[in-house]
Write a structure and sequence with these properties.
This protein is an alpha+beta fold. The chain contains ten helices and seven strands. The protein has helices at 6-26, 31-51, 55-75, 77-88, 95-104, 115-127, 143-146, 158-164, 204-215, 244-252; strands spanning 132-136, 150-155, 175-179, 182-188, 219-223, 230-234, 237-239. The radius of gyration is 22 Å and the shape is elongated. The model is unreliable at 101-109 (pLDDT under 50).
């Protein structure tokens, strides 16, 4: 006889919270499609094993589930590390921060990006042929990449951006990561795209910009050190030779 108690309700609630946290972590990344595929497989496995009680098919699915767990850990090792780090964080994003917020409230976050300052800095870098790579976070969390650079947590400033990318400065070779209206980290290391169709005249900055756009939904701005041309990447695509006005329009509609 089917029975449903308080323990079952708590069980479902905990699983729902964990699934929602995983969804938020993977949202905007390529791993999102794999997440939905795995979730669908788990639902089918549950129906086969416990609802319809199909022994042979259930045994096959059990074997796949056993090996699948190991494969998922290997595939999602960076995402799992980021998830555990986020959950343990004392900031508002983490579990501790959320519990603290229930009693003491949360700090407000300025999420309005200063588009004019970014465009001004990009235009000035393009004019002087100063290489530049800016990554703007959207839904996908970029904490893993931000931690590879120097944490600055400063409001967006055109002059500061230009100084960060000035030739021969310690952080000019890496990427600047922007979250909301804050420059979070500079000199960051990004995954490089291995797409063989990328034009050969694109350098490492362009490949890094494409790499992060292939893995996440972030938008990247690149200024070529050789030509001074401005490029923008998103969702694995790149637009080159864009003007300052075009860049402003792209940033205004970014999401």
């Amino acid at each position: 006889m089917f029975s449903f108690g308080i323990k079952d309700a708590i069980d479902i609630l905990i699983v729902s919270i964990l699934l929602f946290q995983v969804y938020k972590l993977l949202k905007g990344t390529q791993a999102m499609n794999i997440f939905f595929a795995v979730l669908g497989f788990i639902i089918v496995w549950f129906l086969v094993r416990y609802v319809f009680r199909m022994d042979l098919l259930g045994t096959i699915f059990n074997a796949i589930m056993s090996f699948g767990a190991i494969i998922l850990i290997v595939l999602f090792q960076d995402e799992i590390k980021g998830f555990l780090t986020t959950m343990g964080s004392r900031t508002s994003k983490g579990l501790i921060g959320k519990i603290k917020g229930l009693f003491f409230g949360t700090d407000s976050i300025d999420s309005d990006i200063d588009i004019d300052s970014i465009v001004e800095a990009t235009e000035n870098c393009a004019r002087t042929k100063t290489g530049m790579l800016i990554v703007i976070q959207n839904d996908a969390n970029l904490d893993i990449y931000a931690k590879t650079g120097e944490i600055i947590n400063s409001k967006i400033s055109a002059r500061l951006i230009e100084n960060l990318f000035f030739k021969n400065t310690p952080l000019h070779d890496g990427a600047l990561i922007i979250v909301g209206n804050k420059m979070v980290s500079a000199g960051c290391i990004l995954p490089v795209s291995h797409n063989l169709n990328i034009p050969k005249h694109f350098g490492l900055r362009h490949r890094a910009a494409l790499g992060i756009s292939e893995k996440t939904d972030a938008l990247s701005i690149v200024v070529s050190e050789e030509t001074g041309n401005i490029s923008v990447t998103k969702n694995g695509d790149i637009r080159s030779r864009i003007s300052a006005d075009e860049l402003k329009n792209i940033l205004s509609t970014n999401k």
